[in-house]
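cron nightly-structures :: item 1 of 1
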Amino acid sequence: MNDHLKKYSVTIAGHRTSLSLEPEFWECLCALAREQGIATAALLREIDAARGTRPLSGAVRLYVLHHLRNQAGRSQVAHNRSAQQSPCLSEQAPADDRRKK
């Protein structure tokens, strides 16, 4: 087994199974479950039910990645909104329109 992976034993829908994840992904998964007010096992059941034929470890990584991308997208939208309201940014000409004298 890869030295960077850790094996986690879980019960999903009454069946014991294990998945190998980087500890950072496991910590994010647990944090996401806490944010949603559910147990990590409940979140794993949701991921398991939606994963299709994808391995559970990969489905967990993609779930965490998807959440982080969505969170970053919301942060970027908020940043863009504040930038649009900034008079300094709206007064500056685009780089292509600047002329050297």
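cron nightly-structures :: done
The two ends are 64 Å apart (CA to CA).
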